Amino acid sequence: MNKKLQNYLYTKEEYQKQLDEANAKLSRYSKELEQEVKKRTHEALEHLLYHPLTKLPNRTNLLQQIENLDRASAALFNIDNFVAYNDLFGAEVGDRIIKAYAKFLRESIPLRYTLYHLQGDEFAIVETDPKHHDHFKKRIEEIAKKVYEFHYLDLNGDFLLHLSIGVAVDTSDALIKADMALKHAKKSKERIVYFSDTLIKPQQILANINMTKELSQAIKEDRIIPYLQPIAEAETGRIVKYETLARLIDSNGNIHPPKDFIPLAKTVKLYPEITRIIFEKALQIAQTYDIDINVNISAEDIKHHDTKESIIRHLMHSKAAHHLTFEMLETDEIDNYDDIRLFFTQIKTQGVKVAIDDFGSGYSNFAEILKLHVDYLKLDGSFIERLDRDEEAREFVRVINDLAHGLHIETIAEFVTTEEILQVLRELNVDYVQGYLIGEPKSIEEILAS
User: What's the average model confidence in pLDDT over 9-16?
Assistant: First the structure.
């Protein structure tokens, strides 16, 4: 009996020992599971509330902070023309620039403000304490002086980045209003714009809505037409070619110049369609009436694959390509001269000539422009219109004209409005002239009738 009892107790002791070990393992497993759950939960929250690139609080995080506030102050920071760096050097370089700039911002902004990374190259800070709203504007001015320029250097280049800032102070919907101010800053090229009621223009918004409808309908009903403005030999006054200028005929028969609809067309992504319409109609006019025509084209058109391919295809199948000259604005933002050069080489094989429009008004690399092998420089009208009374304008035109002729490039002067200006241009030996003194833009029907 004693022996059986001892065996029983020993067996029980073993079972208890195994049970204790199992409980210990279960406890360890529970702790590990709890830690894993916490880790995964943290990762999920980090993904939801923090930007994956910079690890800064994101837009969702910011919205949570201000969702119950009636009023707040907000400032949005956005890198100017960042998309050009991203397109030119690739997303990997773009990400490095963003990370470096985020670090620069964090070091430049007082620690009392949380820095949020909303999207892409856009960052924000907010003030939620009503006692500090009055000081927010002053703080932003101080921050702007530090962060407006950012010097970034890596193996791909030496970049000087600039910033636009939109601010809304002590207001409801602060983030929305700061975004409106930022858009205005981008458009107006101002460094900082503060939201005010003047930025909200109901009449302009309504006009844009109506013009968008008109524009869409005009494209469907073939009411986008080219007007032609004559270009004459400066010495003889003989008209030798025409420049096409887009016009929109609205549903009431009113004729609208480009400023009324081209900027809007770019916003609503109808601009490539207008480029196509004007180009094809200009090509048809050149072929039908055997006349030389200048057609405006932008760097944006050349970057747009379908537009570029359509132009090249039409030129290859046309007998009038040699009648065309493409004019590209010098002020266009060109981030890849190689693409422009390749396009110009392709169209020149079809007999097309190339002109740089408004030369002297922009900041393009002159050496790069020369590599495009252009045929004409159109001198910026802001210099031409004051030739008869401004010696500096006259000297500028003389220098550019002599330089162009030395490179076998012909020159065209725009904005010729008086006989006095025309006489100066003749004395300077400019090749061609264009402006209201030479002739107003007209439809091909009006030109033929006259």
Answer: 72
